[in-house]
Amino acid sequence: MNKYMNLKSKDLLGLRDISPEEIEYILNTAKTMKYILTTNNKKTAHLQGKSIITLFYENSTRTRLSFELASKYMGASSANISASSSSVQKGETLIDTGKTIDSMGSDVIVIRHPMSGAPHLLARNVKSSVINAGDGMNEHPTQALLDMFTIIEKKGSLKGLKVAIIGDILHSRVARSNIWGMTKLGAEVSISGPATLIPPGIERLGVNVLSTVQEAILDADVVMCLRIQLERQKKALFPTVREYSRFFGIDDKRLKLAKEDAFVMHPGPVNRGVELSSAVMDGERSLINEQVTNGVAVRMALLYLLTRRGSGNEVID
Amino acid sequence: MKLLIKKGHVIDVKTGLDKVLDILIDNGNVVQIENDIDSDGCEVIEAKGMYVVPGLVDAHCHLRDPGFEYKEDIASGTRSAAKGGFTSIACMPNTNPVIDNEAMIMYILNKSKTEGVVNVYPIGAVSKGLKGEELSEIGELKFSGAVALSDDGRPVNSSSLMKKAMQYASMFDITIISHCEDLDLVDEGLMNEGYYSSILGLKGNPAPAEEVMIARDLILAEYTKATIHIAHVSTELGVDLIRNAKRRGVKVTAETCPHYFSLTDQACEGFNTNAKVNPPLRTQKDVDAIIEGLKDDTIDMISTDHAPHHRDEKNVEFKLAANGMVGFETAFPLAITYLVKPGHLSLKELVWKMCLNPSIMLGLNKGTIEIGASADILIFDINERNTVNIEKFESKSKNSPFNGFKLYGQPQYTIVNGKPIVKEKTLLF
């Protein structure tokens, strides 16, 4: 692949919208960025003269910090806006907020929003590049990119790998982005979770929908557990955390069904003893901390590639 | 001045007319239907090559007046209706204040007379303030001019209140139009629950939310022997439930809307808020069943559910966007393009469904071209194809998912009470 290519769109709204080649290009670029992260002097000039704004309408620790550090490591000017302390509280619309940020000369707006499609609305109305840092139940593309980066780092490739995604698929933007991305890169994805938390028709995306966790993780190369949000219990989507853990939790015993060299992943934050037993979470097969490190590398790569657009390089086709 | 429509192909289902004839209109009424009527002293409309049918009757629209005049008002709404070939429209009571008393009925009737260009018939609320708690004064509503009752926009949640409403309304021989939606099952769903809601990550509104309520109201109508009308049917099972109820002798009529036979939930792709409507757009299987229901007369009529919203209410996050789409100016061309052109319905059948049946359901003397009747007439060219351009809508609102669609059968002339309101596709007033 040509070393200097540009992404097709000004925005990264989801992995649904981008090609396998673009995904691979981002992940390759992230390798370089990870190298920078491991050096003693985490400072580059890739984003010098660029401004990166994070606009978060939902709470977040790791995603926000990850974007912020990625910007800072590469020399960008960055600023953060939280919905709780901004004009959003005065009833300003998303489009108006976006145009205000745009008018101050932002290059990239990183948005997290509780409503699916909000980044798409923003992207249509601003000149800045928009990165979706999680929208409702729709997508969380940078999380999936870092998950794929982590798997490829360990396994060499996603092609032919068996990946099991366990838990609340219905409400999970992480699951959707991973399903789009991993199937594009040739993985065989199986999902399992309480029947009330499986989105209808999802099998049309080419995933296996299995009713027991045992079937889903059998011979898996990667077991990815999703956070179960405790408030779902109040809506009667599952009876109790105890029952969830009994039927869908991953402990050492259950993990034996997966391949011997299988890895365990989780986008965090983990409910210890619910999705994963503490032994598994802290065990040697857990990639949870590496996922976090790689998140910074992937976001550095993405910020770099999006701000480089328009510099006259060939567009990836 | 007399008005003469020359050499149009006249189709009327009440009188059984189906041939090329001239129609003479005098003093607002049809006075002669013959071959070669003398045109001396008449204003002449050359309708050669065109169809001449009764003006369309819409049993379900929202004029937003009073209270939401920034979306639509009686002046703009009736002009939009005329542009789309409608000559009589029944407007829903979910205004502010709600149309739940005689004063509000008079407001609609009077304002329509002075500012409207088509016949407007108010529908009264089933419950006071649409709150679903107490019955509105149904007798007073009926005698002041309400043509039907509905809490449209919301279901009558309480089964007990609905049962009483049916029993009470029967006494005054007025039909309840039911907006069928089990809000508990809707559970904040934003679009049809299925593949597209799954991949867009939008909360699903499952078909059973509509079907459970249709079943309830059919059961209550059978029990109370009341006359009910099911609004905006959108699902396969919904059609089947109504079909079965009709076999059992329940006094039920049903409507669907053009978007339920021309679009699926795929239209929501890209978070397209103009495709956000309630009930939501369903699947192809449902679209096929709706068309089947129209063909076998399970579904008696096509209504617009014209639901104007300001662009600021649509140019927002999908979840925050208002439900509904404008319908007057696309309804008839959609019916021609998606039902008549593919051979699902004949033109005669369409005239039943967009003229006579809604008129009968509402108890109006409309939907027909016959001597002595007021001259409400639509003239259109079935072979002319036009591109929908929302910017040219007469409605104040432009919230249509059909922008850019190429459709047949745009109305050329709309004549209301003998007066041409639309001439050569252009509004005259």
Written overview of the protein:
- The complex is a heterodimer of chains A (317) and B (429).
- Chain A is of the alpha/beta class and 317 residues long.
- In chain A, 39% of the residues lie in helices and 15% in strands.
- Chain A has helices spanning 20-38, 62-73, 94-103, 118-125, 141-155, 173-184, 213-217, 231-234, 241-248, 252-255, 278-282, 288-308; strands at 5-6, 51-56, 77-82, 108-113, 129-135, 162-166, 188-192, 208-209, 222-225, 263-265, 314-315.
- In chain A, the strands form 3 sheets. Chain A has a 5-stranded parallel beta sheet. In chain A, strands 3-2-4-5 form a 4-stranded parallel beta sheet, sandwiched between helices.
- In chain A, helix 2 links the parallel strand 2 (51-56) and strand 3 (77-82).
- Chain A is globular and about 55 Å long.
- In chain B, helix 2 (102-115) links the parallel strand 7 and strand 8 (119-122).
- The mean pLDDT of chain B is 98.
- Chain B has helices at residues 74-83, 102-115, 138-144, 159-171, 183-186, 195-200, 207-224, 236-247, 258-262, 284-295, 328-340, 347-362; strands spanning 2-12, 17-26, 29-34, 42-46, 51-54, 56-61, 86-91, 119-122, 149-150, 176-178, 191-192, 204-205, 228-230, 252-256, 301-302, 377-380, 385-387, 406-408, 411-416, 419-423, 426-427.
- The chains are: A alpha/beta (317), B alpha/beta (429).
What's the count of strands of chain B?
21
Query: What composes the largest sheet of chain B?
Result: 9 strands, mixed
Subunit arrangement of the protein: heterodimer
With helices defined by DSSP (H or I, 4 residues minimum), what is the helix count of chain A?
12
User: Could you say which overall geometry of chain A the principal axes of the C-alpha atoms support?
Assistant: globular
